[in-house]
Amino acid sequence: DAKTTQPTSMDCAEGRAANLPCNHSTISGNEYVYWYRQIHSQGPQYIIHGLKNNETNEMASLIITEDRKSSTLILPHATLRDTAVYYCIVRVANTGNQFYFGTGTSLTVIP
Amino acid sequence: KAGVTQTPRYLIKTRGQQVTLSCSPISGHRSVSWYQQTPGQGLQFLFEYFSETQRNKGNFPGRFSGRQFSNSRSEMNVSTLELGDSALYLCASSLLDWETEAFFGQGTRLTVV
């Protein structure tokens, strides 16, 4: 079962930073936070994941609060191609390749 | 390198029939998992295979089954198809079984009529 809560939808102006929040108040110490996105009719695409430290890669940054009960995915300069459904997932490492997706946030980047 | 390949991309079947979907993972990946995506239920985990063994299973009826071959390729079978089985079926592969990202294929769109 999904253990995360995300807003249903968000808009962001093209070129601005998109900040997507996620609540995971019941997260356990050995659970990681993963972010995926799905562009219409395509398979989900991995974005980033982290345990407790903030993470950054070429696509995005992940900010995890100190108590680990929430996190924010930051797309620094949103483009129209970032319009997608973004999923925040928590899962335990070492339990296999299974992800429980919630309903996600539908991000629309506006020109 | 090649990504996750799913075949066929589209399929139309009649109620009561059975169907087999195929997934070729990224070379070297040993874990393959399957998901069903419908507008009503979203993305739901079906099962996962690692080194030819089913390791995890989601909450789906026994009509849904799968297997993995020694080359890590996987097949998923659905018997006695129902209209509600119409969905996008996605396969994902990963290199190891922990703390790594999963790479998804484009999916197979199954329509049951």
Describe it:
The complex is a heterodimer of chains A (111) and B (113). Chain A is 0% helix and 47% strand. Chain A is mostly beta strands and 111 residues long. In chain A, the strands form two sheets. Chain A has a five-stranded mixed β-sheet, with no helix packed on it. The radius of gyration of chain A is 13 Å and the shape is globular. Chain A starts with 8 loop residues before the first strand and ends with a strand. The model of chain A has no long low-confidence stretch (mean pLDDT 91). Chain B is an all-beta fold. Chain B has strands spanning 5-7, 10-13, 19-24, 31-38, 42-50, 53-57, 64-68, 74-78, 87-94, 103-104, 108-112. In chain B, the strands form two sheets. In chain B, strands 2, 4, 5, 6, 9, 10 and 11 form a seven-stranded mixed β-sheet that branches. Chain B is globular and about 35 Å long. The termini of chain B are far apart. The A-B interface holds A 32, 34, 38, 41-46, 49, 87, 93-104 and B 4, 31-33, 35, 42-45, 48, 50, 55-56, 58, 88, 90, 92-94, 97-99, 101-107.
Short description:
The complex is a heterodimer of chains A (111) and B (113). Chain A is an all-beta fold and 111 residues long.
Name the descriptors.
heterodimer, A: 111 residues, mainly beta, five-stranded mixed sheet, 47% strand, globular, B: 113 residues, seven-stranded mixed sheet, four-stranded antiparallel sheet, 11 strands, 0% helix
